[in-house]
Amino acid sequence: MALLVKKIKGTEDILPRQSYKWQFIEKVMSEEAKVYGFKEIRTPVFEQTELFRRGVGEGTDVVQKEMYTFETKGGESLTLRPEGTAGAARALLEHNLINDGLPIKAYYFTTCYRYEKPQAGRQREFHQFGLEVYGAQDALSDAELICAANSIFERLQLRNIRLEINSIGCPECRKNYHKALKEYFEGHKDTLCGTCLTRLEKNPMRILDCKSPVCKEIAANAPKILDFLCDDCKEHFDKVQKYLTAAEIPFTVNPSIVRGLDYYTNTVFEFIADGIGAQSTVCGGGRYNGLIEELGGNPLPSLGFAIGLERLLMVMDAQNIEISSPESPALYIAALGDAAQVKAFSMAKTLREAGLEAQFDIVGRGLKAQMKYADKIGSKFTLVLGDNEIAENKAKLKNMSTSEQKDISLGEDFMQEFFAALIESETNPALSL
Ligand code: ATP
Ligand code: MG
Prior knowledge:
single chain; BirA Bifunctional Protein, domain 2; Rossmann fold; 2 domains; binds adenosine-5'-triphosphate
């Protein structure tokens, strides 16, 4: 078959045979968000380009190189969201959510669009889950946020995922730090990559985030931000560490974490997993006290994180964390003849009303083909209905994994007997919905 249209490079389809995994992690995340007091926010997939210029930051790779920006027929410049925070912050201001009482805690699931080189763990359309906290300055809120991410990874049974934290201070302490960084990197001008030479002029801290091995090596010996923190920022960072220790969340301080977005201040953190290649950061976040002001609001201390869902699923796959597939039907009813089909239809309806997946033939196959289909869709049990079974009001219930058969009443006792058989057959220890 010559396919007329194919999916766009850097995008992926999530097929019916995989979507249960997505539903599972989304369920865990929204449940954890809920117990931590977060409510869902949904914002549009496109926004005015200006929002991301301001909210993500003019000097970032995302704005400089990665945005999907287009002009509308009316001549307006719009951009597909490259991340979830800017839209949430805009909505907060636009709807005056501050009046609802601070802090505001919101979570989101979004698709994000970035024009990047597709590779394992890096797509052009990808998915994020994120938490946002607006109107909280205390270090307790940093610790609580990190704790929420940690709870999600624990519930998903992830192993070997490490938390690295850092503080990049406030604009005040960064002034001196920038000076020191500039001096240091000026001495390595002939070896830095082209992009880092521009960064050296605009924002030398970005060099610490460069992925080029040469720049990384130079950056390893650069002055450390932690030596430049003012007293307030130092105290804030000390407290974050104290609270994480009290909550028994293991972490290491990594002074080279600076995060890619302009609006970060103070705490920044990443959860990094081994075993999925170079793109190993599953979750990135931190505090962004300057963001709301940058978007035209009054200063509002804020923080948040985003988890990349594709990368998270890659880690779960790599660690053989099994998510049980909820897709196998409890019962497939094979029916032959008019009366049996009508009976199958009504039995399936009763089972479905009880919350069980039940299927029967809707395409007019013969018995053999129906049984083959039941096997293909992995039905736990099958039942064959013909004129005899209808007349006797009983049929053979077959357990498809053991091939055991037993009589089951088609009358009032059917549901009770079927439930008993179903419970007896349940032995799956995997994570499930
Ligand atoms: P990276 O350094 O990997 O480019 P980033 O700093 O650009 O990450 P954020 O903007 O903080 O990432 O996004 C948060 C998370 O979203 C990342 O930790 C990652 O899990 C995921 N993510 C970011 N970009 C992509 C992408 N192109 N494809 C898939 N997942 C991504
Ligand atoms: Mg990036």
